[in-house]
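Handout, section 3.2

Students often ask what a structure token actually looks like in practice. Rather than define it abstractly, here is a full record for histidine kinase. The first block is the sequence as you would receive it.
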Amino acid sequence: MSQTVRMDPGPLLREHLSARSWRERLYSLLSLPLAALGLAAVVITFLFSLLSAGLLFLPMLALMLRVDRALGSLYRWLARVLLNLRIVAPPKPPRSPGLAGFMGRQLGDTAAWQVCAYLLIRVPLGFVQFALGFGWWAYSVLFLCYPLLWKVEPQHEVDAAGVSHTFGIQIAGFYFDSWPRALLVSAAGLLLVLLSPWPARLPLIADRYLMPRLLGPSTSSLRLAQLAETRAHAINEAAATLRRIERDLHDGAQARLVALGMQLGRVERQLARGNLDQAQALVKTSRQETKEIIGELRELVSGIHPPALDAGLGAALTTLAARSAIPTKVWVDLPNRPPAAVETMLYFAAAELLANAGKHSEAERVTLSLRSTRGRLQLMVIDNGRGGVRLDAAGSGLRGLAERVRTADGTLRATSPVGGPTAISIELPEPV
């Protein structure tokens, strides 16, 4: 029993008319003039590079490299608008004052030289993109409209046999000068129009591969930017910690010690007057005040280095879990004891995560695990609460915790669908 195979032109038509296809056609149309502009920029940069051997054209070369970098910004903008490809701009090198500083900044800009390499590759790539992306589509439309063009602007030619033809297209002596043949060209044009999005995307694959690598930041520049950011955050965090300690000492322990000194002065006066009962009462009050001050100082010191860490991170986390508002199970598997700074960070991170779970999660149980895997230390806190935790939420404490973790070259990830469970992991590089 035979079946008739029917081809549905709907997907082809929708793809041909989609916004993505039109944006890619516009990008392909711009590829040819931009390739010519890029070629001119590369040639001028190359000439200035040769002529700058005598130092006379060095300022011109520096200015031209700045133009090249601006062309890279133009291509990144086109990629974002027309190709939906977002490329982060590479950071600019530091600048020293004066003309020499400006020239050194431009001549040493690796990103500008990478743009030159991209513009050179863009010359043949731009022609291919124009041909397959816009030329294919334009000729397909012409073929589709061939019957109309054939009748509006007829052309006459006599073949080798002396026969006159009214034609628009002829291939190897075959003339499309009749309505059936014209409609055949139109049908071929329709098919080519519907297929036009896919050939246009073939050369765009190369562009999508090259642009992030030549127009975006390099791995080293990203690393330097990250280190600069984490360094600034670590400095600000340390300054904030020092201000907090100073405030707590000034407003707390220092004020209470001053009051204790004044109270001991009263004891001294009472003893001089022979009032032993009043002096004894004041001494008792002073002794209680001294105990409270010592407790306050211990609490302040524990905020810098928890005494529980003296017995190791495993014991400290077990003690921390015992104080949690939610029943917490602890699992620790570390072959070696981490450095003190890493232990302190992991301890305070675990304390903050357990505190957040107790305040917001409405969970019934929490699992806290710490292990070493693939050269990294992983701290994970999982609760069966209501979920919905987001790192980018306004006022989220996890955002600040993530910034502190980044100062140690670590990462914080959160998986928390609405309804739970919530899993928050912190990974730090394991010291060698």
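Discussion prompt for tutorial groups: Residues 1-7 have pLDDT under 50 and may be disordered. How would you have guessed this from the sequence alone?
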